[in-house]
């Protein structure tokens, strides 16, 4: 039985280390990509503090399409270059947005969101999607979040065959 207890740690770094360890235990026990993405989204949503959405947008037919997530219903499709997710996908870099209301072209799926971090999912130079996390707090995300969420995406790349859930 896998552990579903809320993660408690003495520092943000140790929290992320324990979270990634727990996520890897799920990834290593299951081959199905969609099942794994569902569990990763759930673990992020249940364990990260001060967030209101955590999940994935996956590349399908040249745009980002909503994938597994935790939170309120979300925008279904995002064009590359549009909003924070589309910009991170286009630029192939992580975006930390302290105030989404100041981000030109921000797509407001949930009016409660005030800050956001988006990490592109790139494997073998192919963009497969993005990991997107929103918060109702301004300035919620920092370089520690960036470092560890990028490490999480590397773990996903190690275990998942993205071609199973995307149509590039």
General description of the model:
This is GAF domain-containing protein. Residues 42-153 form the GAF domain. InterPro entries: GAF, GAF-like_dom_sf, Phosphatase_reg/MetRdx. Belongs to the free Met sulfoxide reductase family. It is a single chain. The protein has helices spanning 12-29, 33-47, 83-91, 143-159; strands at 53-60, 63-71, 77-78, 95-97, 115-123, 126-135. It is of the alpha+beta class. The chain has one domain: GAF domain (Beta-Lactamase). Strands 3-2-1-6-5-4 form a 6-stranded antiparallel β-sheet, sandwiched between helices.
List the helices and strands and how they pair.
Elements (H helix, E strand, L loop, with lengths): L11 H18 L3 H15 L5 E8 L2 E9 L5 E2 L4 H9 L3 E3 L17 E9 L2 E10 L7 H17 L9
Antiparallel strand pairs: 1-2, 1-6, 2-3, 4-5, 5-6
Helix pairs in contact: 1-2, 1-4
Organism: Caloramator australicus RC3
Family: Belongs to the free Met sulfoxide reductase family.
Pfam families: GAF_2
Features:
six-stranded antiparallel beta sheet, Phosphatase_reg/MetRdx, L-methionine-(R)-S-oxide reductase activity, Beta-Lactamase, alpha+beta, GAF domain-containing protein, 168 residues, globular, 24% strand
CATH class: Alpha Beta
Low-pLDDT windows of residues: none
CATH superfamily: GAF domain
Secondary-structure-based class equals alpha+beta
Helix content: 25-40%
The total of helices stands at 4
Main beta sheet strand tally, sense and closure: 6 strands, antiparallel
- The helix/strand series, from N terminus to C terminus, equals HHEEEHEEEH
CATH architecture: 2-Layer Sandwich
How many E-type strands? 6
Give the CATH topology: Beta-Lactamase
Radius of gyration: 15 Å
Q: Report mean pLDDT, rounded to a whole number.
A: 93
Domain GAF: 42-153
InterPro entries: GAF (IPR003018), GAF-like_dom_sf (IPR029016), Phosphatase_reg/MetRdx (IPR051330)
Protein name: GAF domain-containing protein
Family: Belongs to the free Met sulfoxide reductase family.
